[in-house]
Give the backbone structure.
Amino acid sequence: MAASTKKKKTAKRRATKRAAKPKRAAKRGSKAIRILVVRAPGTNCDQETGYAFEREGATIKHVHINALLDNPKELTRAHGLVIPGGFSYGDDLGAGTVLGTAMRTKLLDPIRSMVDRGGIALGICNGFQVLVKTGLLPGHTDDGSKEGLLPGFSESTELQRSVALTSNLQNRYEDRWITLEAVTDNCVFFRRGDVIYCPVAHAEGRLVCSDATLARMAAADQIALRYLAPDRSRPVPFPHNPNGSTDDIAGITDPTGRILGLMPHPERNQFAWQDPRFHRRTAPRKPDGLKPFINAMKHLKSTFS
Amino acid sequence: MPIAAKTASSSRRAQGGSGRPTRPVYRLEIGLNADSLDPAGLEARGNLAEAGLEGIRDVRVLRTFFLRGRLSPADVERAAQEVLADPVQETYAVRQDLDLPEGPGGPMRMITVLRKPGVTNAEAESAKIALTGIGLDVRDVQSARTYLVWTKASEKQVLRAARRALGNDVIEDVIAGRVRTFVFPKPSKRRVKRNTVAIRKMEGKALVTLSFDMGLSLTKLEMETIRDEFQNIGREPTDVELETLAQTWSEHCKHKTLAGAVDMKDERGERSFANLLKETVFHATTVLDKSWCWSVFEDNAGVIDFDGEDGVCMKVETHNHPSAIEPYGGAGTGIGGVIRDILGTGKGARPVANTDVFCFGEPDMPMEDVPKGSMHPRRVLKGVVAGVRDYGNRMGIPTVNGAIVFDPRYVGNPVVYAGCAGLIPRKYVAKRARPGDLCVAFGGKTGRDGIHGATFSSVELHSESETVSSGAVQIGDPITEKKVLDILIQARDKGLFTAVTDCGAGGFSSAVGEMGEKVGANVDMAGAPLKYEGLDVFEIWISEAQERMVAAIPPKKWPTFKALCDAEDVEAFVLGEFTGDKRLVVRHGKTVVCDMDMAFLHDGLPHIVREATFQTGGDKEPSWKPKKRYDRDLLGLLGMPQIGSKEWVIRQYDHEVQAGAVVRPLGGPNNGPADAAVIAPKLGSDRGIVLSNGINPAYGDIDPYAMAMAVVDEAIRNAVAVGADPSRIAILDNFTWGNCNRPSTLGSIVRACEGCRDAALLFGTPFISGKDSLNNEFRTGDGELISVPPTLLISAIGVIPNVRKTCTSDLKTPGNPIYVVGLTHDELGGSHWYRMKGRVGRNAPQVPTSAPAVMKAVSKAVRSGQVRAAHDPSEGGIAVAAAEMAFASDHGLHLDLRRAKGTTKDNKRLLFSESTTRFLLEVDKAKAKAFEAALKKAGVPFGKAGRVTPEPELRIVGHDPAGGRAAHEVVRLSTDKLRQAWRAALHLGEES
């Protein structure tokens, strides 16, 4: 991105005065942005993730997955869908499997049409794992890279599951703060060059895919986030790449850039004192983790109001 | 070609031999593609090698599912393709014989590990849900892990290592080879019968025998009391009545020893207690009478004021014996149990933080020294950590504070403390079941879990098991508990409960008995949802199956509650009702199996007076010549497992979930240890909670009174170091002792109770909750009895108005002065430095009367922003604290011990003495004057003893051993070297 446009964008962003307190913005004249936060048994980051959107002016509706499966129409009235972190159904069959299967069976079409209208879908940590199990990420539809792999989707959709999020290389759960860099021009959540400091906390976050899928994602600018080493070296060594993820990938989008899945938790750096640098007085004033929520809301407001 | 064979040929074996046609059981095996990395295989390889298996070339893990139902082979293919196998990196096979996958070649062994019948298996449960979800008619699912081990070792050798490293006999079958066929156990029929036990004519010895045979753990006097009661009633008791009395009168529920009468005799004289706890720990709380204590020692957990609107409650539990037998399940259900304590506080609290403190045998204990019948401490540690991790993380509760203590005496009897704090609106703190309310159970189903340690059936799962065996050890199911939490908070906020409590020890019997104590209850076991059929009525009544709660719900609110539960797939059913007749009636349909007076159940326990004595322990203070330098001593201390880095453990816990973490267990650019945790538990509010702990059994070996005082001091000190206000700290006690039927052991706990009382009164810090676990002893195969050291854990919880005004322990800015606050004395007794040298000593640290003033002044200095870094010198003294502050940061530290106040001029004591109530503080240079003035005004002893340096180096100078006045360098080490020593201490796995 050219430096001048970047500057312009920053200036523009500054000019847009945000509401400091949640809920206030939603009531100010313009059409409310409605975001569904899905909760399944074992989801446990729903409150703080919803809060991050709420403070940026969204109207949040927390919805249990059973209610959404019973009434997928809920999605036609929504502008965004969030699948927060946690351990949906315990993750005992592999992270995100049970919820991903349920969503693939009943919710794929309404989600895709919401995104086609300009809406967004965000999966953080377990939510990313779920999106990958549904095939919405990376969202490839032909079978170019299918060779040697099992088919594995129902007849109602042609989306493939071509990416896996699997056991960390160290084969255990790991909670630590890492640095991310946005490396895409095609994502409503981030701008290329954004650097975000936030925690990862997962056991199955290592992205694995075939070389063909990787090339295809790269060509379509779907690789959204990479882990970043302090000296910017690649491949990024442990613990800066906390799970051994292929190509240091921390997050990917679908081809539209409006569906994002990422392993790290930006919602866990939304208050200044959450940043471990706070006590050293080197934390940025505006917490890093707010970026994707601010950007997504900006996109939704410009699309829908 | 990987394991890609997809020809489906099912294993069709008739089941059970009952003659009726049964459906086939399909075996589905799933493995990673041969070219995929297998981290689980790598870990298994490491664990097998650690268990002594040599020459392993590779290990791969397969997931195996056994499916039965109205299924065609094509259905099973669908199950694999759509749900169970990952299309990107896994392949599967549905057949009897499997081509071996490609690997490094050579000879291969196969090990299968599968859960015993009746043991919770969340993986199988999930599979059933998911497969039903895609429209398959699956009736039964079981799962197993199959390990492919490439090695030249014999099958027997591999199996022996696998039993140690890959499975636990208590809950799992570990078998060589593949399970070719599988038999789902056939349920037995439920026996509904009223069984009476003729005890009215029994005398002493026969009563004791009966108690033993029924596993009641009641004493002769207690059995006689029961007999007399039923003689008065004029009938024989039923088995259910005896079981109920045994549960209610157990040490676990009634705390007979500590809440009992004690005659104490020691060098301080003779004294008598009618109720030891009431007159010591609880007495202090009563005297202090803090208005911000909302509920103390009456509910599941103590509750204190958080922000006027909400209170914060906390409870700490032990789960020692289950963790000794099955560390993973024991620790997991321990944390699950204490979380339910919080859920069942008042009308329900929302958990916001977990804590865990463990005591294990020495991690480097040679295998041959591990007593027969117990596991190696490393294996216990790994299992316990995994159990806490998998439960706490799945519940979405951050695990924020903890400690690990190592001592050889914990080898057969590890100690696992699990704590949980929660938020509860003030209006929900009080609860009371009312006559007419329905008695409702919700959450998990009931099985034979934990029925007074009933023995397991040793029948292997793959052979012809006819019945489901019982489970003394339980495996938790955190997702069921998370669902309970989700429902509970919604129901509470809708005002659907009048009371709620958890099912812990004693199951329904204690929960219903407790809730109905004042009103009475009439309940029916016939409708209880069961994990499997065949449970007797008394088994349902006393089962300790996890994840269950009992609520009192007005009848007109029941439909709303039931609909809420149905919407989120939570089991809920009406057990019966609260009556008003003050009787406990238990039925199975129309058969009454228990009908007792609540008053006798709760107050009928006979009281006895126990004798207690005490003698101070420890050994003679060693008299070593002063050394010139102590670099090696400091590195040695940092390398002790108890002091060294616990990063391998800490990183496996989610301490960030709920987005409230402010001060974490590790801090600074280089991850040094924190003193206490700070969280902000309410989204959008800066108000916070400080959590810390104090524990030091080594002092207890000398004098439990001094230990109690010191660990209360330590808990408060840790909290103050991060910015807690000592006038708003509450504490909890947890006693883990040996057999208190021995007067000397009881005397040691009396001294600890007295120490708790005096410390609480001194600091003005009330106890709000507590728990004790007695009889922590282990008899080795050689008959030697090992009793755990007196282990008192003090957990502190403080409330702070603003989490921004807190402080971490890493050094911040070169040039800032360093202060040593408090007094250093000749108090190496029980210190880590003595322990490193194989000694105990006698001079255990005492708490000075000036301690409260020190705490107050330091707290003020931290909150005012004068202090930039604070750390408490405890394990390893000032030397270790200074090292930790330095290596956590990118800076260094220069310290002059001659400036430290106190009564000793001996360098080793200045360095390593563990005197209480001291702080090492980095103060903002610009605010140093104000800081000094404030401390002087408060009469607090302090010395300006150094500064933060830009060079990453720790340099400590002290007194000249030759008696001169010049500074004498005692330690000079790079922070890199210090950090390396600290990180290498536990070496459980690779760290960053």
